[in-house]
């Protein structure tokens, strides 16, 4: 429960101030910038929650603006921080960008939005689509103010009534991002999967959707046996439309979806993975030049293909005169990133590719292994999931009884995917084949 919400410039001067409860003097905001400067850590990162004299300051920075909530209560900090994120999202939807100039140009609408999004310090409506139905930037010139949509006053605040489509369809994407760190020997030091289920919903009326996954906890709690692999998901987060009580009781994901595109849920799997694309590298440093050999291996099934593969290999900042030769794809030197990028439109599972690179090196240096950046890999593999998660069913129920088409797609892509390079070999004669 927030007492007040402020929008400040970078000097801490209030641009917008909205007092909801009257239990904290507005002058308390003057202590925000001194507190922020005092509580910064060694890296210059500020703490999102600070307290002084019984007042708690929660803040979020967007470009040249601070969004700050003040409270005296023992409030849920994550709820208020999440509200500030929603507030920034709504302002961005309205003004395209959230910065000091856009706030000064739209302060009337900002006060309207603050009144609708929070009541007596309690967060209320936060869906931009619903707010845009009755709070418009031209509202001051309308002779008749529009009535608030029913979504504001009913239990389903994220969806309006009366939505109609000629063709009722649902598109569901299971997107998994692989985070991985591999040492020069090819051993995985750390790995996890960050998953998200994203939906595009084009359904008439007020439909009820039920989604079933091959959830290991669900099978264990019901005593049923999974036909295939069951997945144990961690750190699950849902969109507000999901009925959490239903999920906690029988692990059923039941919801009335928002209209259009939204993220239904996210999850994490902390598991040991093998690299989907492994890059083995050899680096040779000679007087006046440095040479690289990179071998890429697609370590997934042959029936799958990785699209838009990019292998980003760091080089010394003063490297020049690049020469490349690769068995597949194209290579480009990007001096502003101190790296060369090996691009492959498609890389089939089970295949290997080889790249050789040669650079001139005008200066002699002592290379510090701790500061040497790793190789980064970008890719996208359609119709493939590393975790084995599967959509068992997607049921659509609406009182009019229409038939709807559900479409499901699986995508695996890179997250923070890095492979450390070996120490350069220094020798008189090159052991690598010439380019």
TrEMBL record:
It comes from the Eukaryota. GO terms for cellular component: clathrin adaptor complex; endomembrane system. Belongs to the adaptor complexes medium subunit family. Its main location: membrane. PANTHER family: AP COMPLEX SUBUNIT MU (PTHR10529). It is found in: Endomembrane system. It holds the Pfam family Clat_adaptor_s. Residues 167-420 form the MHD domain. GO terms for biological process: intracellular protein transport; vesicle-mediated transport. CDD domains: AP-1_Mu1_Cterm (cd09250), AP1_Mu_N (cd14835). This is AP-1 adaptor complex mu subunit Apm1. It comes from Coemansia brasiliensis. The keyword Oxidoreductase does not apply. The gene is apm1. The keyword Transport applies.
